[in-house]
Design goal:
This protein is mainly alpha-helical. About 70% of the residues lie in helices and about 0% in strands. The chain is built from 13 helices and no strands. Helix 7 packs across helix 8 and helix 12 runs antiparallel to helix 13. The two termini are about 35 Å apart.
């Protein structure tokens, strides 16, 4: 409550005090939360060694988020010597517990070949777990894999299904990607008006690529009344976000 200011004024020092009391009694959530405060430097004091200590205590109890956070510390060399093998091991522990952020991150690491041999099929596996659990990023990433035939047989209609699920949760990248599918008639019947609607949803969240794309659509009158003024507005917003 004190950490996030829920029902009380935000007070990180009070949050640390209460988390520490519970953490010293072995409460895993509090240990993880305390570790995160030290890791992020909330309250002005960043201490990777203390973060490592508290994340590790929670990890020993099988705490998924703590395992994921330890994975980040090893992956980025924060407070420890960078070690991708350890990072993968901790992320995997968290992912196997159903922690969707870890599942998506593991998917990214396998897709990009970060610390592991590149394997799109394994990326798809982890994205799929997260996607079926309702994670919007996992759904969008899985849609991308089907759209581009990475680790799966290319299938625009399945890509549209996953993009739609993520877009319906308000995920900007998915809204833009789904807009492109409608714009070009890939996996769905071409519909410029629907494309503009989706690009606009993403653009209004500050998604730069969607803003620039909307500028082009207004410039050319695709699904909208042609307007140089509105085209310029969206292009300017995109340019400002890239600064």
């Amino acid at each position: 409550m004190y950490e996030h200011g829920e029902g009380v004024d935000q007070n990180i020092s009070k949050a640390v005090e209460w988390y520490t009391r519970a953490a010293n009694q072995g409460e895993a959530d509090s240990q993880c939360n305390l570790g995160y405060i030290y890791y992020s430097g909330k309250g002005g004091v960043q201490d990777y060694s203390k973060a490592m200590e508290w994340f590790t205590r929670a990890s020993v109890q099988g705490h998924a988020r703590a395992n994921h956070n330890l994975g980040y510390m090893y992956e980025n060399g924060h407070g420890v010597v960078q070690n991708y093998r350890e990072a993968i091991a901790y992320h995997t522990l968290a992912a196997q517990k159903g922690y969707t952020k870890a599942q998506v991150h593991l998917g990214d690491m396998y897709e990009d070949g970060t610390g592991v041999r590149q394997a799109s099929s394994l990326a798809v596996q982890w994205y799929t777990y997260a996607a079926y659990a309702g994670d919007a990023v996992g759904q969008c990433n899985l849609g991308y894999m089907y759209r581009n035939g990475r680790g799966v047989v290319q299938d625009d209609s399945i890509a549209v299904e996953w993009y739609t699920l993520a877009a319906n949760q308000g995920f900007a990248r998915a809204q833009h990607n789904l807009g492109l599918m409608y714009e070009y008639g890939e996996g769905v019947e071409q519909n410029y008006r629907k494309a503009v609607e989706l690009h606009t949803l993403a653009a209004n969240q500050g998604f730069t690529i969607a803003q620039a794309h909307l500028g082009v659509m207004y410039e050319n009158g695709l699904g909208v009344t042609k307007s140089a003024e509105i085209a310029k507005m969206w292009k300017d917003k995109a340019a400002q976000n890239q600064i």
